[in-house]
Design a protein that fits this description.
13 helices, three-stranded antiparallel sheet, four-stranded antiparallel sheet, 533 residues
């Protein structure tokens, strides 16, 4: 059966990617291993260590994919995560250069597993090195690297993205993207925090590591190369440091326990890296501050995700805009859903990291080295809850306060009684065609024009003399009362030929005097008696 040119090309690409990635990784690792063994044998003497470089390289290749081995008196099962990460990135780069599809993945997987089984055949001292376990672990590493190299920019991802945008609600799509972005950001923040903690450990306890080098009798060259080799387990230390920073801590089997409260060890093997293990923090305030670092950073990240410009930015809507208020409520619920989803995914990644960073240095008291997964997940969930949901609640409270203040202002404005601008109300009744009207007289400021004075003087007693009843009409009181006296409160008027004139008596109230009526003048009586039109 003749193969099509496209399938043959895919098979060749998969084989090239698999063989090329393993060749580059094995050659680089083998050269460094041979150099390290050569320097150690030259400085320390003893047997010809470089002769065992090939076997040690094969063992490290399998160890970087999760299969432990026995080296001397140490049963090493702690996976060097830095080598694992470099191997996955190398596979991804080779796949990206060669290109690949499903056929390329299958061919490369077969070749990759076969090469690793060949390496396992040359190292009989494997721990958990059954063929099925080796096949499963190596296949997982190849698959992850292949997906990282082949999926970005592929047509499958573009088609899935277009289909999702067409069939999924826009807000839901934005919420999922926000959750993924938050997850990546928080994992990166945790790793950076762990790296900073490890650097602080090194700066504070490098003398302990130097003491262990002296106990092992290692010279400068051996110290340098051994330190460089120990960097392969740097991500493991970073993950342990994150657990330590959050309050859970880690332990070295049954011989050492390290938390923020205590740091003690007894009977540990003389490995130089154990000289970097931290002590407990004596000051309660410093310990509390260290525990609050990661939640505070997570809270800032959540606030930025909610307030920065974007499709899900939070902005208060106008008080009377019902559609805007509904949109704001939906946006806040989308943020809440994104935070919940991000928390779940982040906890899953934390659990995977904690499990992968653990291992053993023996079979008895050093059988378990690393963190306890469940306590570490509990403190991580607490940090995520305090950070993300405290930020969401803070924004919710601020928005509720804004709308509450608006509601109170509107409520008070609605309950305020309607009154004239100067707070006074004057009623007058007029008779027009047998009907009575009530008029409200309003004025912001008292009238500053001169007012007519009665012939009786400032007391307001006696009859009006030659002065008219008041040219200003009923809209303005005609009494000029001195200080301490009250102005007329009501004026009754009637429409006639000569205009609106007072009909009944005017009442003037003065302090300390009884109320006396002021009699209308003779001219006013004549005007009142005239028939109206």
């Amino acid at each position: 059966m003749k193969l099509k040119p496209g399938r043959l090309t895919a098979i060749i690409k998969g084989a090239i990617a698999s063989i090329g990635a393993m060749a580059l990784y094995a050659i680089s690792l083998g050269c460094f291993t041979a150099l390290m063994l050569l320097v150690i044998s030259m400085e320390e003497g003893g047997e010809n260590l470089p002769s065992s470089a090939i076997r040690l390289t094969q063992s490290i290749i399998l160890l970087s994919q999760g299969t432990g081995f026995v080296i001397g008196s140490v049963d090493l099962t702690i996976t060097p995560l830095l080598l694992t990460l470099l191997l996955i990135l190398l596979i991804a780069q080779c796949v990206r250069k060669a290109g690949g599809d499903l056929i390329s993945w299958a061919v490369g997987l077969v070749i990759w597993v076969a090469i690793n089984l060949m390496c396992a055949g040359g190292v009989p001292e494997l721990i958990g090195g059954s063929p099925l376990a080796i096949i499963g672990k190596t296949a997982s590493v190849w698959t992850v690297g292949f997906l990282i190299g082949a999926l970005p920019g592929s047509g499958v991802i573009a088609a899935v993205r277009v289909a999702v945008r067409e069939r999924v609600n826009r807000r839901f799509y934005d919420s999922v993207l926000l959750a993924l972005l938050l997850t990546g950001t928080m994992i990166a923040v945790a790793l950076v925090a762990g790296l900073v903690v490890v650097i602080v450990w090194i700066a504070r306890d490098w003398q302990g590591m130097a003491t262990l080098f002296d106990m092992d009798g290692m010279e400068n060259g051996s110290r340098i190369l051994t330190t460089v080799a120990s960097c392969a387990w740097l991500p493991n230390l970073m993950i342990w440091a994150v657990s330590w920073l959050l309050g859970a801590g880690f332990h070295i089997g049954e011989l050492g326990s390290f938390t923020l409260w205590v740091g003690q060890a007894a009977g540990l093997p003389p490995l130089p890296v154990f000289g970097l293990m931290p002590e407990g923090v004596a000051d309660d305030r410093v310990r509390l501050g260290l525990q609050c670092i990661v939640p505070a950073i997570y809270a800032v990240i959540a606030l930025l995700a909610m307030l920065l410009p974007g499709p899900l930015k939070v902005r208060p809507a106008a008080f009377g805009d019902k559609d805007g208020v509904k949109s704001l409520i939906v946006t806040m619920l989308c943020h809440l859903g994104a935070f919940v989803g991000s928390t779940v995914v982040t906890l899953a990644l934390y659990a995977g990291g904690f499990a992968l960073s653990n291992g053993g240095l023996g079979t008895q008291r050093l059988a378990h080295v690393g963190v306890d997964v469940l306590p570490s997940l509990q403190v991580t969930a607490r940090a995520l809850g305090f950070g993300l949901f405290a930020a969401w609640l803070a924004v919710t409270v601020v928005l509720a306060a804004i709308y509450g203040i608006h509601w109170i202002v509107e409520y008070r404005a609605g309950r305020r009684p309607s009154s004239p601008a100067d707070g006074t109300k004057v009623k007058s009744e007029t008779k027009d065609s047998g009907k009575t009207r009530v008029m409200s007289l309003r004025s912001k400021e008292p009238d500053s024009r001169p007012k007519p004075r009665s012939a009786a003087g400032s007391t307001g007693r006696g009859k009006d003399s030659d002065l008219p009843a008041g040219p200003a009409g009923p809209d303005k009181p005609s009494s000029d009362a001195p200080d301490g006296e009250r102005r007329p409160r009501t004026v009754r008027g009637v429409e006639g030929k000569g205009g609106r004139v007072p009909r009944s008596v005017r009442v003037v109230r003065s302090a300390g005097e009884p109320v006396k009526p002021e009699q209308p003048s003779k001219e006013e009586n004549n005007d009142n008696n005239q028939p109206s039109d």
